[in-house]
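pasting for ref
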Amino acid sequence: MPKINIACFTVLFFLFSCSTKAQTENSINTEAHSTDKGSVFLNTNKADCINLPFGYSDISKRITLDSILSAIQDENKLKEINALQFEKPIKKDLILLPEEYHVFLPFSKNVNEKYDRIKIASDFLCYGDYSLYFMAVYNTTRYADPFIEKMYLISTKNGKLTDMKRIYLNHQGEMGFANYTLFNIDKNYIISLQDYELTEGPFKLKPLQKYQILPSGKFTRYYDHDGPYKDNEEQGMVKNHHKEGKWTEYKPNGFIDLQKYPEFTDPYTYLEAEYKNGLPTGTWKFYKLLQKYNEETGEPLLNTRKKGPLISTEIYREGVLEKQEFH
């Protein structure tokens, strides 16, 4: 895992680990969310529920740079996404966008000023008692014609936010660098996400990841097969297609203050986690991940990885973060 473009790697873990109790308990009124500055109206008309599958159905077959770029630039697919009717704007002073790749709910009056077009789609997914809304963040800072840079799927029930997941990314960086995420949602509500990265090194195709919407309305990783699982990022047991029991994960930790810990060359951690039915439970322990890097490519040397000093602990109950403590 290279040390460059760390923010791109952090999104899945950071959004997942930061689904705090405050986020879960705060509500978004399904008719309107009002503040002094404006309102956000969410559609509840079941006639506007979209049919599945939806998205880029062939992302598992797009493994070359040309095929990826053709998908990103596919006008028909972009029209299909925009046909979700992103008509309900969210004013930038109603939502917190603390950094480049993350969006947090509930809404806040603080916002990164570089974003000024955020919209909720009228069309949405119906999933039992849950309504899943698409939220688009438009890039308006470097281009004359705004386009959707990020898209999130927001799970709600009875007007209360349950969870959210970024499912689409078209981030154009400096010097030709770019990060992309394409998605597909199949008829069983399994969400497939494929990440791509263009840096000064070779084009990188990241492993396809799948997520499932639980009966609780939360998003969790989905695995095709049960039993022991291991890759370069994590290892543990899969039961009923979800993480179960003890897992070891090599993850970025967005809470690490690199100025406070100058001895850290990056924010990656050695995580000892525990899951029940796919959701975090018990005490998670974050240690500094000690690893060496290839001097030419910046890639980590996996056989050098080992557990360093304890950084922080997090206590979860039924997937909700209840306490965080730094050491």
